[in-house]
UniProtKB/TrEMBL annotation:
<dbReference type="InterPro" id="IPR029787">
    <property type="entry name" value="Nucleotide_cyclase"/>
</dbReference>
<dbReference type="InterPro" id="IPR054327">
    <property type="entry name" value="His-kinase-like_sensor"/>
</dbReference>
<dbReference type="InterPro" id="IPR050469">
    <property type="entry name" value="Diguanylate_Cyclase"/>
</dbReference>
<dbReference type="GO" id="GO:0043709">
    <property type="term" value="P:cell adhesion involved in single-species biofilm formation"/>
</dbReference>
<feature type="domain" description="GGDEF">
    <location>
        <begin position="490"/>
        <end position="623"/>
    </location>
</feature>
<dbReference type="InterPro" id="IPR001610">
    <property type="entry name" value="PAC"/>
</dbReference>
<feature type="domain" description="PAC">
    <location>
        <begin position="384"/>
        <end position="437"/>
    </location>
</feature>
<dbReference type="InterPro" id="IPR000014">
    <property type="entry name" value="PAS"/>
</dbReference>
<dbReference type="InterPro" id="IPR000700">
    <property type="entry name" value="PAS-assoc_C"/>
</dbReference>
<keyword id="KW-0472">Membrane</keyword>
<feature type="coiled-coil region">
    <location>
        <begin position="435"/>
        <end position="462"/>
    </location>
</feature>
<keyword id="KW-1133">Transmembrane helix</keyword>
<dbReference type="GO" id="GO:0052621">
    <property type="term" value="F:diguanylate cyclase activity"/>
</dbReference>
<feature type="transmembrane region" description="Helical">
    <location>
        <begin position="267"/>
        <end position="286"/>
    </location>
</feature>
<feature type="domain" description="PAS">
    <location>
        <begin position="309"/>
        <end position="380"/>
    </location>
</feature>
<dbReference type="Pfam" id="PF08447">
    <property type="entry name" value="PAS_3"/>
</dbReference>
<protein>
    <recommendedName>
        <fullName>diguanylate cyclase</fullName>
        <ecNumber>2.7.7.65</ecNumber>
    </recommendedName>
</protein>
Amino acid sequence: MRVAHLTSLVTLAGLLLLWTGVLVHLDGAREQARAQALTSTSNLTIALREHVQHLIKEIDNVLLLVRTRQMTTVEPSGPLLIPENLQGRLILLDARGRQTEATTLDADTAQFLHADFSAASGEDRLLISRPHFDTRSARWVVGFARAFGQDSKPPKGEVVFLLDTAVLQSFYDQLDLGHTGTLLLCDTQGRVLARGAHENYGRGLGMVLAPLVTPQGDSGTLDGRSPIDAIERLGSWQRLEAQPLLVAVQRARSDVFAGYFQHRQRLLLTAATASAGLLLMLVLFLHSCRREWHELLALEHARNELATAEERWRLALENAGDGVWDCRPGNGTVFYSPEWRERLGLPGTESLPIDTVLELLHADDRDAVKARFDAHVHDETPRFRSEHRMRMADGGYRWVLSRGVAVERDATGYALRVIGTTTDVTEAHELHQQLERQTVGLRQINNRLAAKERELTRLAATDPLTGAYNRRTFMQRAELEVARALRRKMPLSLLMLDLDHFKRINDTWTHAGGDAVLKAVTQLCARLLRNQDTFARMGGEEFAVLLPDTGAFEGRSIAERLRAAIHELQITHEAETIPVTASLGVATLSAYDSDGEALLRRADVALYAAKRSGRDRVVMASSEGHTPLQPDGFDPVI
């Protein structure tokens, strides 16, 4: 019993250590996921800050140029023009907020902007308005202004640039922030000026950032529920250097901790299974210890009674709960206690031949039981123990555990007398078999979960429509191949493939026809490309091919072969044949390419050159990536 108590304490201590380790590990894994998300959003916030500062700088340069024109003595002429890369409009307001030149701005917007700028229009600095919905253009806008004529009181007016607040959307579309990630441009009171998100709304709403944004701080973290769409997000913010603005990048907490939740579920399931197994084994062990303890007590009691009187010993046999037997191997007889004699259906009350008892054993167990008993009789084992099936009085078989020990031996070690017990262990045996079946079932469930995990990994790396690799997987492979090619000084080519007039196909044959075209082109390219090549759908009707160990000439040949095969492709949809052609841009790795993105950009430039030059053709990219390669006497369009 002392061993049983010690085993129980060790098992419980092991369970405590197991769950303590699980909880500590989960806490560390959660903090690691949060730290990784903050590092990622912090880096993106720095990039967004530089992008916005550059954009505001360009706007201010335009405003200063127009203001200089207005303040010259020469009468200004011509329309107010802005660079093509800026999304917005340029207007002039007089001192009363009226438009001084013909524009498409509605009067309410003009007065709103004038009211925002009038309080500080005497200062020679860049002024920024609140966001406003322009009913004429049906767009949200933010005004950037410079006052002109500061010498007069009030100034003559303002030069205003109206920036479309969707300006962050293009930057947002280049990032992978999940379905509910956001980019924000706010003033220092937390009011949203522009927002990049899957659902772009919420301009002008306060983000309650003031407690996080202090005059001494230039950056920080955001962690909480958004008042715009009530989604809990985690992210970072950065203050702009020269303007009272800040930018923020946030990811949904559900996306940040998605991997952690999956890991936690698997770990808790494993720990729970292990705990249940340990507890079950402990229960079985304690049950076995208890049974052995009672059996040993019964044997000790029998020895004491035998030393004093045969009658007392027989009385103990009658009151014993388990079956007690007394065997004399020399004369081949055995005596059973009355209770088990009745259960076994044995006649009389006297000793019986051993062969009579052997006939009660199951035929499949008889030889093994006899061999174990003979080994103990000849002093080859310290005690006899056997678990086997035995026929009862009702004709049915039950599992029993028989154990005994020789209490008398002759000079040669041969047992003259063996006393033992027989215990019905049918329930314990069936419980053991049930445990084995459950263990097999758990193993099968674990195999199915592993197969599901492999399938999820495959789906995360491929395009669900075509089965080709997706953009993320392609870029990961491109970075690895570019690093390998630069390290080993091996050639590497990249193709950009775009289906011509794909919108016309969707409009004519519906999206079902367009999907059929995408699948057919994917299957065709998979047949034509090599095993080491990587083919991926980058989005829409645009595909990319990575060609390791492939120079410019061979890359051009492969691109032409793909173009010709697509041109000849016969795609039937609803009894009609859909004509398909493709334009391709080819770029070969050069010293100017530092990574996969640079190589992809050059191939993309070549692709759009193929589009502009008539489609259904191949164009090679230059080594610098600015214009398609056009050496003397060579037409880049194949």
